[in-house]
Design goal:
Blueprint (H helix, E strand, L loop, with lengths): L1 H18 L2 E16 L9 E3 L10 E11 L2 E10 L17 E8 L2 E9 L1 H6 L12 H5 L7 E12 L2 E8 L29 E10 L2 E11 L5 E2 L8 E2 L6 E13 L2 E13 L8 E13 L4 E12 L4 E13 L4 E12 L22 E11 L1
Antiparallel strand pairs: 1-2, 1-3, 1-19, 3-4, 4-5, 5-6, 6-7, 7-8, 8-9, 9-10, 10-13, 11-12, 13-14, 14-15, 15-16, 16-17, 17-18, 18-19
Amino acid sequence: MKLRIAAGLVCAGLSASAFAQGSVTLYGIVDTGIEYVSHANAAGDSVVRMPGITGEMPSRWGVRGSEGLGGGWSTIFALESGFNMRGGTLNQGGRLFGRQAWVGMSSPYGSLTFGRQYTMTFWAIADADLLGPDIYGGTASFDQYLPSSRSDNTIVYKGSYGGFTLGATWSFGRDSAGTGNSPGQGTCAGPVPGSSQSCREWSAMLRYDRNGYGVAAAYDEQRGGPGAAANLYDGTPTFALTNPGDTDVRIQLNGYGHVGALRIGGGWLGRRVDTVSAETPNVHSDQFYLTAQYPVTAAFIVDGGVYRIVNSDHDTRGTIAALRTTYQLSKRSAVYLQGAYLWNSAKAAYTVSQGGGGTTPAPGAGQLGIMAGIRHSF
């Protein structure tokens, strides 16, 4: 009997130890450099600066963790803060954890999380646009929501089943802090009592990945509300989206794959801004992109892309060609040199750089951006 009791106590101790296993990871990226942009204002002047938002990657630090609960279940969380290397200030409207702040559960049936999180727009485009949140990433230069597609008050589900990934988000109010959820959207602090649609956001994604190839489709809808706005980033004024019936929708189809060591990605992204008021005309645009990446050596990587946007309602069009070279000094440190050129149509004033604003050219002016930088991950 004593041996049985002792064995039982040992087993119970081992079970409790396994049950309580967890991990917490501190991580981050620090990335900055020097940038030159031509025709950075209506007068055609150039600027040399240290960008404030991103270089090759946006600077951030964060904490993520999990605790196993047994049976394939675990609690998970992430807190991630974005900051400005130029001045040491917080990005995302000055939020402490403006990039991510969520907690939830992971199980064999997928994950369910709650808090400030990425929408499915971010997860759908992540593998197809190989330049991603780069300062000259064309999809982001033409639409700054894409690398900043997050929302507050959000429930997120993601699950994978035999190569398929299903994802959906639902936000009761996408900007609870009232400091601007992402560039050009205004504030739209929600939820709003008595108006369940005001400042609401929802998105859905279906993707399939197998053996280094994949395709994805996503839908993302934002509703209007107090303080909400829409910016088409083409030099035309930002306009209000204050009616709950106003919608700002992004739809995308994309894919990626390999040809030997060459990685290729591309796709289409349509934006549809529709308003209730007859005084505010609807605006639709379509963006197309093709990107590629090639490792010349294990340490030297060359990548780039061509991006094209057409906004027939504003009669504005833009094309960006970007090229980037990265040399890995070590597993965690790298230096890079990159450049891009933007062609604007006669009425368009897109900007090649998403380095923190202040580089809008005159309508029709072309723009050259060049940046040398250094990046370290921890």
